[in-house]
Specification:
Chain lengths: ~280, ~280
């Protein structure tokens, strides 16, 4: 039986394997400077941080280590958001023991307890993770400039002075960031994605590709909002719905979005997290 | 910097990512019951055994653990031969310390010292690995029936009675098995593949696909010999040469061999091992 850390690594690999996943790197589509093999190397590099989370090391420190390892390839940011979802989920699944996971144990309630228990030190670890890789983020509100994640470790004194936990940080960005929203609300879309992946038939990557479209149709991708604005994000979600309705070939949509450089990365992160939960609950590959 | 165990895992992932790799599962071709995601899960599952090898655990025991973990997916044998090459190479690269690898250290001589130092207990571990997965192998010569690997753990008493080390075992099959031949001769094709991968330009999976063709053209694949006979193996190697000469589209050859179920698996194992050596020597992904 796989450990929780191994399930998390497999989730990362299955996510990028799933195709078509319109706009994102997958088995048959990539960007010139962000290729499939960068996601392979990212998943390998993240391994030590994932094992730290399973062993009960602090969430922030485990996440920073996972990101540092993930970034040890030439593609840049491959799985930052996915690791941010996976780290507390691994903790919730493993109970911090690092032993093979108990299929019964991973629930939204347990996951919420992990995020609610995060500390100021966890927030500092999160900020330090930005030292290792460039992540596309929005400008913060005016009253949060000192907490701009792009400041990386330089923002840590402000975080410490205001005694903000990692949960506190994400409460402040939940309105505009889909990963943060999961963090402060018991991971509702992650667990829903896991249920859908488990309920569908066929090869797991095919199920993941389907659930990617469903999540994308369901809500605009916040990473697309950040990079291209609300209108584009809503247009992409409408197109995903059209594909689900059978009125647009998902392969055509995928070609179009890659051509335009529009990648719904947050939705891909949710799929990775959903795959992890499904694997923890006994999904066979 | 990646550890040797991490480089080995990445080598497994890059190998299956490389396309076209005529006859084998790759990013765009698979068999109904042996799919791309089974190789992802195999590489994840092998991780603990790879780390054991890097930490200095016995070769046979590490290999058995790697195979047991690899087999924890529904596709069956995905990377048995690759793990058999990687296990001693990891030991040679890490010096058994498990620490980040020293780029200068992995040489054919060091690798040969590891295989020459294998014990009867290592041979027993190798036989026990066959308990975890079905591997296509030839009938043994009449005087080696007691040592038939398909007997798995049942063959261990005969191995112990004859005091055969794992190196001894492979000397007896080197004439008909390309992995065994590497084991007893300092891994010449593995190191040659690594040099070629390092010398070529472009994305690493593309280089690996090219080197796969070169190795296949250079020598008949012994796994194809076992499953389909000498004539087919020689025909496949000739076709690989035709592809290298530009007179046959490798994609066409790939479609044809998958259609016929002819998979040059030993050549893929050599590519995985060559990728590992190249990564150890500083290849960037």
């Amino acid at each position: 039986m796989r450990t929780s850390a191994a399930n998390a690594q497999l989730a990362l690999l299955l996510e990028v394997t799933a195709t078509p996943k319109p706009g994102n790197v997958d088995r048959v589509r990539e960007y010139p400077d962000l290729r499939f093999e960068h996601f392979m190397a990212g998943a390998v590099g993240a391994s030590q941080g994932l094992r730290m989370a399973a062993a009960g090391d602090p969430v922030g420190e485990s996440f920073e280590r996972a990101v540092e390892g993930m970034a040890d390839q030439r593609g840049g940011n491959t799985q930052f958001g996915a690791l941010l979802l996976l780290t507390p989920l691994i903790r919730a699944a493993s109970g911090g023991s690092g032993s093979p996971s108990d299929n019964e144990e991973l629930t939204p309630e347990r996951a919420a307890r992990v995020t609610e228990a995060t500390t100021v030190a966890d927030a500092a670890g999160f900020y330090r993770a930005f030292e290792h890789v460039d992540v596309a983020v929005d400008d913060p509100p005016a009253d949060m400039e000192a907490l701009d994640v792009r400041r990386g470790a330089d923002a840590v004194p402000a975080v410490e002075e205001r005694k903000l936990t990692l949960h506190d940080i994400f409460e402040r960005s939940a309105d505009r960031d889909g990963v943060a929203r999961e963090w402060v609300s018991g991971f509702p879309r992650t667990f829903a994605a896991a249920d859908r992946i488990a309920a569908l038939d066929g090869p797991v990557p095919d199920r993941a590709a389907r659930v990617f479209l469903e999540l994308l149709a369901d809500e605009p991708d916040t990473f697309v909002v950040t990079k291209h604005g609300d209108a584009t994000a809503q247009e992409v979600s409408a197109a995903a719905q059209t594909a689900l309705d059978g009125d647009l070939d998902p392969e055509t949509l995928a070609d179009d979005l890659v051509e335009r450089g529009v990648n719904p990365g947050t939705t891909a992160d949710l799929v990775a997290a959903g795959l992890f939960v499904a694997l923890e609950r006994g999904l066979d590959v």
